[in-house]
Amino acid sequence: MTRALIITAPGINCDLELAEAFKLAGAEPFSVHINKLMRNPSIVDSADLIGFPGGFSYGDAVAAGRIMANLMRATLYGALVEAIRRSVPIIAPCNGFQIAVQIGLLPGPTPGSDWPTTPPAPTVTLSQNTSARFIDRWVEFVVPSSTRCVWTKNLETTTESACIPIAHGEGRFVPRDEVVLQQLEESGQIACRYGAGDNPNGSVGDVMGICDASGLVFGLMPHPERYLRPTQHPQWTRIEKQENEPLGLQMFRNAVAHAKQNNTPHCVENAV
Asked: I need a labelling partner for 163 at 20 to 30 A (CA). Which of 36, 127, 207, 267 fits?
């Protein structure tokens, strides 16, 4: 039984879609509120996969994802790092991406380096869209050939199906400096990019999503959990035949397959 932990909090509104994605990909999703996890971080030990859903955690009252990230930095960082060490894939779409970078999980330590015992300072951020407006549309999805990301490797798409939905107001990827971006490039941690001329938010380097050095932790601004069926594509009636599974579902299948192959024994005593 491959179990997928979905971490919920006030304002999160994409948890059901994330659960459906894991379920269709062959995992058994279970949702746990952040308050319960903070009281008992060992629940994370029962997960083979982990998802940080999108939405507006705590109303994005201070900044997008900031409150939830600070709570998790203080109480769950160690448990999440241990999950990564036992090869648990983690996905963080949209608000989840904002949270993951502020916790310190992304981009994570450089290849060959161990995780620090305390959360590191963020080296990238997701800033306000250059348009200063909330954007809700589909964009072109491109995977660099050199990526090490477990979720986006070997995706099969056509020109028509290589797109994905976005919905955010603070999605502009900004590295701390050019050195950080170069390191991400050279280490294969750019997991996906916006298509040429289809960068909706002004992200530096057209970066749509990144992964950590292990390829397990994947953060992206789009919502792959909203493209699980052919009929969710905005032009599905115009595509003659979709030979491949929808882009989003392929990502989740990649991660579930990795989790099943990994098959690392884990604690189920505190499973929900």
From this structure: 127
